Structures
1.
Amino acid sequence: MSNYGTTRQPGGGAPAKDKTTDYHTALFRRLSWEGTVPIEIRVDPKELPANSDRGLECYYIQAPRVSYLPLLLPEIRRFLMDVVFDEAAASGLKEEDWWFETEEGTITKWHWPIGLIFDNHTISLSVRSSAPVASSQAQPLRLILHLASPPTEKLMLQPSQEACKQAFMGQLKEADFIRWGSTKRVTGLRKLEQDGIWEGIREHNFDDYWRVASKVTPSATLPPPAPAPGASAHARPPSTDAPSTFDRDGAYSVRSIPVRVYLPDGPILQEFAPPLLEDGSPNTLNSFLSTHLPLLFPPRPPAPPPSRSKPNPQPPSVPQLAYVMIQGVVSPSEAEMGWLGVCMAGADGWLSICVGINR
Amino acid sequence: MRGLRLEASSDTNGLNSFEDALKALDNYKKKDPSKVVVRFKAVGNAPIMKQNFYKITSSNRFQAVIQFLRKELGWQAGEPLFTYINLSFSPAPDDTVANLFKACGTDGHLIVNYSTTQAWG
């Protein structure tokens, strides 16, 4: 397995515990990278050029979650030109006028990762429809391909690969800024490396991507040990603690994890997400979401004090109104934001949290 | 018909949970009417505007800020205009002013740099 998920050690061999961290980091990064979603693309029948072979105008792709729609266009175009379109009628088509929308009329954005488009759409459908939640079989994302009159304001970008690359690099820098307050890690990359990370996405090559990404993604260190309950920070002996092996570039040293929360049909929230809370414990999905979306993720009240009849009281349960989906997977509420930010983020460095509603 | 429904005390995922969730979603959809102070700063040869500070509604997308800037500068759609936050990065066009301010605001405003050439691309 590729070595690019490793923590950076100050020197000497990595202790066994860190080798486990390396393995899990690489595993989850690989799983996120290899995730794909089914897409069904159908040309708007009203726009099919004359003499097109109707009945064949549907194209199916199992697309990588970390890729982008503009990167799929060449493949789609090849299929349509080979199989569907009459050459003469199709010669006037301009790819820069092509655009997609969902069957529900949502215009899909060129700069959103495909996995995000898919999850956001799936959740949106599940909230709107009165039908029971879909079975475990993933329903394809059904897109209508239009060949003309792009709604440029809503699309915000040209469908060109160059525009997509620029948007991607912009997101990478914004993520860098959120983490550290500067973009020097990304801007410090050589031009060859900046091109290389995009090539990794274009060619869907994990190693090529992570060769560069490992230079700008914080290392997946373990959080520093939380202070024991009741102990104050001052009581901790200063010399024997984690600070001596504290990784200044680690996941738990960032100012904030670059994270966006997508509610079905909007809005998109962006909130400060420190890796550690004020009491030194790791910030979890639960603490983050109950702070910023308390109506959907009500904070759990503390357990009542122990009594003779109930020596080990549990905190009262709260209604599970909503769930969290990251890279297509429903995530446990105790997942740590710091870890999620370096192991389950998208290729552009952003952790996309899609919120769904339980029925 | 609420009176006819049996309330199970241990049932925390009853019918009303879904409705509560929908109500919560509606609540979160409400547009924030507050405004953010945006400070436009010219870079390189870009012209400096007479007025550089503007109050822009938080819920606006950055795309709207770019269009607003174009209008203030009197520039057509085709003329090159590059915008950056804090001289650092170019935001996604659908990033909201609210989110950008929360993440990158300094001294109570959001600094938007603009230039005619790509500086930090």
2.
Amino acid sequence: MINLKHTGLRYDGGPEVLSDINLNLEAGSFHYLTGSSGSGKTSLMRMLHIGLLPTRGDISIFGQDIMQISRQQRADLRRDIGVIFQDFRLLPHLSVYDNIAMPLRLADISETKIETAVTEMLNWLGLKDYKSIKPAFLSGGQQQRVAIARAVITKPKILLADEPTGSLDDYMGDRIMTLFEELNKNGTAVVVATHNKGMIGRFPHHILNLKSGHLIT
Amino acid sequence: MSLPSAHIMPSSAFRHIGVMVMFMYIMTSFSLIGFLSVKNITQGWTTGFHDTLTVEIPAFDVEMNYVFDEAAMKQDVDKIRNYLKNDPLVIAESITHDGPLTTGIDDLDIPAPYFLTLSLRQNRVDGAEARLVSNMRRIVPHIMVHEQEAWEKEIKHTAFIFQTVFCGLALGIFIVTSIVLSGVIRTQLKAGEETVRLVHLLGASVKSIAALFKKSVSRAVCGGVFVGGIVTFFSLFGLLPLLGLEGHLYEFYIYLAIIGLIFIGICRLITVRTVLSALKGLP
């Protein structure tokens, strides 16, 4: 699904923050991405959801070399990648409902189907009473659940999650990890960047470790 | 993509574009009204000049040292009029004479000249006027013919200057509108950078983001053109009769509609180009 070959990344001619990354993520795979702060986890995650383009090497996603395809094709690829950002990145002027519905609207899904899918997701995450609320009035944990709902609502082929349970209690954290595992069983490749060793222990999967921009598998 | 444009930018963000376009539309419309008024009025004037010739039977000779008496002048007038009766170039004539100009001093009453205004046939051949003048001079050598051509040229030249100014003004307004609109869009993009980046990461292409902006801007511009159009529409009712152009009302309305379409077209084009250029750094 995602294939990186000798991939490197540097910002504005500075030193390489990612060096010679070789990685192959298959459909149905589940990986944790670990590493200390500044090791390049966020940069790698951004590169995987085509938020950044590598400065050297190759990346192919769903068999397409992202350096060779058009911006429109990259946009189409992104719709099959769900992303959960560490800082949630919810749109402050939209309600919880509209935030979750956004990827479906971008994919041109009908409003009837969107309503069914979003309502189901809100019920599952315990947010049905908050559908008209703006994110600013939600707690950190609730915002994180909205961000997760937005990422998984399209049942993406790849799910990239940056510290997805950081603001959640253990019970909700485990429910979210169970949701990821269910998606994974249905063929979604999942990459979770985390420091949470307890969670890795409870839900054991393959670990990718980043050290100073180098990937140690 | 069924994403409402308000999800990227609040609709209020573009309201002031509508207000700006309204003012710009009114100014452009009045520039055009100015342009067309000058054109129509000038055309009316020059048509009148073009087919008219004024012949003066003077009271003085060229050096102003000889005064013709009233009887001699009348005789000259009769000679010319007799000739004109047989010239097919002249379709009508009228005579103007104010009588002696009274000074209040009995011995110093000054004789006034006779003026013959000739209406000439339209679609005449080149040189016809020169032949007419030459024939009249053969009969009365000291007549003076007032050349309308110089006036016509002067009026046309002045009209051209005014028309160029009005055209330049309209063009300037379009350019200023484009620059201001581009600046406003860039500012809005900067203000909503996080939102735009996020929507892009969620799968919106740069083109579709530009389309959303275009939709919002178009709505604001259409509103501005509509309000500006109503103001100009009613202004024309009062303005055109004053200029003697009430017969051109429908012609003006067609031009107003064209200006509106140009505004909408330019604003849509500038919006798309600005968004695409501002977001060219996105992968």
